[in-house]
Amino acid sequence: VIRLATREAYATGEAANATLAATRRRNDPYRVPERDPKDDPEPQSFNQRQLWFLEQIRKGERFSAKEIVQTWHVSLKTARRDISTLLHSKLLEYIGSRRKGRYRTNSR
C-alpha cells in the first residue's frame, strides 16, 4: 500500500513537472534569448593615458607603467590597470620574459 502511494505521488510529480516544462519561466537557464547582452561586445573607449601609451609604443619606444606614473602623476595601480585594459582589448601584447620583455602593438 505504501509503495503504491509512493508511485502515485511520484507520477503526480512527474506530471506536474511536464506542465512546468511547457510553461517555463523567464529566468529559466534553458531558455536562451535571441539577443543576450552578456555576449554583446562593449564599445571600446580609452582614456588619454591609454592613448598616449599606445602612441609611445607605436613610435617604437620602450615604455612601462612607471612612465605612465611619472608623466601623468597617477598611482602605479592605475597605470597597470590602463595597460591591462589595452592588453585585454588586444591592442597591445607583451613579448619576452617578465624581466626583460616589452610591449608592442598588436600586428593584427
From TrEMBL:
The keyword Transcription applies. Residues 16-46 are annotated as: Disordered. The keyword Transcription applies. Keywords: Transcription, Transcription regulation. Residues 53-93 form the HTH deoR-type domain. Residues 25-41 have a biased composition (Basic and acidic residues). Pfam families: HTH_DeoR. SUPFAM superfamilies: Winged helix' DNA-binding domain. GO terms for molecular function: DNA-binding transcription factor activity. InterPro entries: DeoR_HTH, WH-like_DNA-bd_sf, WH_DNA-bd_sf. This is DeoR family transcriptional regulator.
